[in-house]
Amino acid sequence: MKITIRNIIQPQKIILKFFEKIIFYYNLKKYNQNIFEKKQNNFFASLKLNRKKGIENLNSFLDTKNKMSSEHEVLFSSISINSNKLINNILEIGTYDGCNALLLSKLFPNSKIDTIDLPEDEPDFINSYSRKNIIKKFIKERNRKLSKKKNIKFSELNSLKLLNHKKKYDLIWIDGCHGYPIVCIDIINSLNLINHKGIIICDDIYLNYNHFNSDKMYHSIASYETLNELQKNNLIKYKLIYKRLDPKNNCIANKRKYIAIVKKI
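-> structure tokens emitted (265 positions)
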């Protein structure tokens, strides 16, 4: 009954979703993943990284249950096998379930990994990623994963407090809140914490996201706009790679997500 009433009140949304489905299936049908694989390989090469060898290396750490989640894992793997990239200290902003920190610890066994996430009693932590009703179970499982490796140090820390942080890093992964103002502050703080020739990597870059539909936690154009302003003022250089290459996630151009690789000038 509620659905019927909503449909009557807002019929334009039904029409819009219908046309979105048509556009999606049209683009899905004509999508050629091989083209994007080639582009992605070239993007990696421009960063002096070998994507194919990165995938081979990554597969040696992943079992059949844990498949690659996105191209950031291939990127980390490619960096880890590059003899010209010396990575001693890594900072991860946004621990989530601990899986990424665990992978980093395997890819960079001789590195020290600091991973931070919001304190468990903060509303943004409790109410995000559908964990409100399973919070204790989520934390227990996360902490279990993080305890597997001695080179991981987890801290409950709001990333804004990195403003007073002194330690320097060779690799920083930004995957906390994606919207204004948090991600902008995370990027600026990371620029202050990165070593000379260090690499900052930002997850979930949207190029065409509408401000009206943006939110604090998940979807925003904030990272892209911040990086553009910094590059325009000759403070950084950055390049983008595709976050995912599968047809479902990459066939609609204005909905594609990217990963930014940032270097401080």
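The mean pLDDT is 93.
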